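Support reply, case 0932

Customer input (verbatim):
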Amino acid sequence: MKRLRILALMHDDLVPPAGASIQNVAKADWKMEFDVTVTLKKLGHEVHDLGVGGDLGVIRKAIDERKPHIVLNLMEDFHGVPVFDQNVVSYLELLRIPYTGCNPRGLMLARDKGLSKKLLTYHRLPVPEFAVYPIGRRIGRRPKRLQFPLIVKSLTREASTGISQASVVEDDDKLAERIRFMHQAFGTDAIVERYIDGRELYVGVLGNQRLQVFPVWELLFTKMPEELWHIATDRVKWSRVYQQKRGIKTAAAKNLPEHMPDYIQHLCRRIYRTLDLSGYARIDLRLDAQGKVYVLEANPNPQLAYGEDFAESAERAGIGYADLLQRIVNLGLRWRPDRSS
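Our regenerated output:
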């Protein structure tokens, strides 16, 4: 294996501190950045961490100085704006430097939940009924196709951002109140979709043109009271205390109907290609009590920390953590923007 010079882009407040070790990383905000860079160093690569704030100039300077073979993109937004991550990748393409993860077009399509759902609907892929409520416009009458209960999300921010038990609403007054909250608290448009009561499933996909789909994974709510909505709220995703209290964990999905795993994996391949994704992504779905699958969203460049669901499902597929990261790097080296279609 060739030893590579890798420039790792990450948010400036998530650069692992000097002297960080496995013993003190478990609860750190920068766990993913630590896990990824340390593992790549153990593989023999020369990895340089670069904290990026709101200035693209630091990236250009580091590339000129370090002459990396590839940029490891661990950015989830730029200057605090999630949809700007596609511009960082576009900048790397203009500099003609290989990078890991999803291409700009795939990021743009997937980050806008309304646009991605329109594309998936056009290709007859199953999504919940939905409507977009732009910020700054009057909240009009609810379309008849939207039947309660409904869930209100940010159109462009990561799905768990702003999601709480109050996000699921059962009448028009609460719907309007939650839309206004999303507009005011996060400064983004809101998307409202029919709430699908059922099992929450995740599927990891790896590849550019040739894809490998990982086993179906599930978000489990083992101690969640029945009167609460079983949804991936912000606390469900990020609060370890809440996860322990409610028995939140992810694991390989069990007791799925016959042929359902194959169907879901085939569905995720279609979603990945429809949204023009590359590198790696996680597809989020719901399986209702009648056995119908609905696509919630696609998440390009998902969490890569050791022990998280993407890495765990890869391991179930026979790909260890170090091998997974090396494959992601190799995919970045092989990606050619001028050959994409």
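We compared this against your earlier run and they match. Two observations from our side: The chain has eleven helices and 13 strands. The first strand starts at residue 5 and ends at 11. Please reopen the case if you see a mismatch on your end.
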